């Protein structure tokens, strides 16, 4: 399969124009691509153009690419017309397995031979979706976060019949298109970020159901607590700092036994030597030569920046307690 170089892609097709698909359309337009979209809903074009118009002020504030224009959007009458000359296709249909299988089969049959096809699925493995495609090697998952035009993360992973070259191509294309990419080594139901979100969400529901915390308390516990750190330093390095100068190794030695405490309804993994070494070594790799002191300074600067940006530094107007929703 001969693919256009990721840096040379000019035309993108978006199949599905709901919240996620429309968000992708807005993102690709803002990055200067020609975008052809298709959605079977009778009012799809009106809704899509309203969504793009609503997103455009934010996209303008963060910076439009050269040539970016809403005029570069075309809404096609059929799926086949939408993908006919696409160099990349982003499918964003509702999370129904049979629907996605059917759409990906149709897209595969209609799209040019060199076009990589990505699904925005938030949970299905590509192995389960590519079963009907004649050329399944070019089908990958490109899982975004809402709204795709603002949240940079995309998780990329292929299925059992996906070509490694297609996965590498998609990852590079998303990077060129301004995304932050995690290229997963293997399929995991729900991918990475959704699994972590789901664990937090599930525990929150338990606490509400048991009368242990209110919705407002749960949200505040994140926005006023660990969420400030997670905006720029993930949970692993954050926990490494809890070990002081000893880093993650000291943290595991000191707090490891508490994994068996009944703090959550999730069963903790066994902290054996293999997991211990993987976590400590992974933190050292993620630190990339930065010392604990360097990371502490970085964390503190980041917290101050987030507090300042959200109006929560002493002396600033206090941000409202409601309306800080998560996506």
Question: Would you write up a description of this structure?
Answer:
It is an enzyme of class 1 (oxidoreductase). By secondary structure, this protein is of the alpha/beta class. It has two domains: 178 residues, NAD(P)-binding Rossmann-like Domain (Rossmann fold, 3-Layer(aba) Sandwich), CATH 3.40.50.720; 117 residues, N-(1-d-carboxylethyl)-l-norvaline Dehydrogenase, domain 2 (Orthogonal Bundle). The chain has 13 helices and eight strands. The chain has an eight-stranded mixed β-sheet, sandwiched between helices. The longest helix has 19 residues.
Number of helices: 13
- CATH architecture group name of the largest domain: 3-Layer(aba) Sandwich
Distance between the termini: 36 Å
Uncertain spans, ≥5 residues at pLDDT below 50? 318-327
From the alpha-carbon coordinates, what is the Rg to the nearest angstrom? 22 Å
CATH domain fold name of the largest domain: Rossmann fold
Q: Mean of residue pLDDT? A: 90
Class based on secondary structure composition and strand pairing: alpha/beta
Which strand-content bin applies to the residues? 5-15%
Instruction: Give the beta-strand count.
Output: 8
- Helix percent band: 40-55%
Query: What is the CATH top level name of the largest domain?
Result: Alpha Beta
Q: What is the string of SSEs from the N terminus onward?
A: EHEHEHEHEHEEHEHHHHHHH
Query: How many domain units?
Result: 2
Major sheet summary line: 8 strands, mixed
Fourth-level CATH superfamily of the largest domain: NAD(P)-binding Rossmann-like Domain
* Overall spatial form: globular
How is the largest sheet built, in terms of strand order?
A: 3-2-1-4-5-6-7-8
EC number: 1.1.1.108
Transmembrane segments: 12-30
Pathway: Lipid metabolism; butanoate metabolism; Amine and polyamine metabolism; carnitine metabolism
Binding site for NAD(+): 16-21
């Amino acid at each position: 399969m001969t693919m256009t170089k990721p840096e040379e892609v000019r035309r993108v097709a978006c199949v599905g124009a709901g919240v996620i698909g429309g968000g992708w359309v807005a993102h690709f337009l803002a990055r200067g691509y020609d975008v052809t979209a298709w959605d079977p809903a009778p009012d799809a074009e009106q809704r899509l153009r309203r969504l793009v118009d609503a997103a455009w002020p934010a996209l303008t504030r963060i910076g439009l690419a050269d040539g970016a224009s809403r005029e570069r959007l075309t809404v096609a009458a059929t799926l086949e017309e939408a993908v006919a000359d696409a160099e990349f296709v982003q499918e964003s249909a509702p999370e129904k397995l049979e629907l996605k299988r059917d759409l990906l089969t149709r897209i595969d049959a209609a799209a040019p031979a060199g076009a990589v096809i990505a699904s925005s699925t938030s949970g299905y493995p590509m192995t389960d979706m590519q079963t009907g495609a004649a050329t399944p090697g070019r089908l990958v998952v490109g899982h975004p976060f809402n709204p795709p035009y603002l949240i940079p993360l995309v998780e990329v992973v292929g299925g059992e019949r996906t070509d490694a070259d297609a996965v590498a191509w998609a990852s590079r294309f998303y990077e060129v298109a301004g995304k932050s990419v995690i290229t997963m080594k293997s399929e995991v139901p729900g991918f990475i970020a959704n699994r972590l979100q789901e664990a937090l969400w599930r525990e929150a529901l338990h606490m509400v159901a048991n009368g242990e915390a209110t919705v407002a308390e749960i949200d505040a516990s994140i926005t006023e607590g660990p969420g400030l750190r997670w905006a720029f330093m993930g949970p692993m390095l954050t926990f490494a700092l809890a070990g002081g100068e000893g880093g993650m190794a000291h943290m595991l030695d000191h707090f490891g036994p508490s994994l068996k405490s009944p703090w959550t309804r999730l069963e903790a993994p066994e902290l054996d030597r293999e997991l211990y070494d993987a976590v400590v070594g992974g933190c050292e790799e993620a630190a990339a030569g930065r010392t604990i002191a360097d990371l502490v300074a970085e964390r503190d600067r980041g917290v101050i920046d987030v507090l300042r940006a959200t109006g929560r530094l002493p002396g600033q107007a206090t941000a409202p307690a409601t309306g800080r929703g998560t996506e």
